[in-house]
Amino acid sequence: LSLQEVLSANDPDNNFFTTAIRPHGIFGPRDPQLVPILVQAARSGKMKFIIGDGKNLVDFTYVENVVHGHILAAEKLHKGSPLCGK
């Protein structure tokens, strides 16, 4: 489903609450992509690297923080919550 479909499905009158959480660059233990790249860069002394043209903004989020964010959002989803549908 698209983001807008999920958010528009928010229906507090029927106890169906939605919100959007869109983390980027999730990494953590047993990560098959980001962690090995960072480890290799550190071992070869090339910790500085540029993604794209260097002007883009990229954010990395540790997997446990993503989980924590989902739990906090779920705890706040209730009738009248400003998070609902956003």
TrEMBL record:
Domain 3-beta hydroxysteroid dehydrogenase/isomerase: 4-80
Coiled coil feature spans: none
Superkingdom classification of source: Eukaryota
InterPro entries registered for this protein in UniProt: 3Beta_OHSteriod_DH/Estase, NAD(P)-bd_dom_sf
Biological process according to GO: steroid biosynthetic process
Listed GO MF terms: oxidoreductase activity, acting on the CH-OH group of donors, NAD or NADP as acceptor
Pfam families the record matches: 3Beta_HSD (PF01073)
Record-given protein name: NSDHL protein
Biological source species: Regulus satrapa
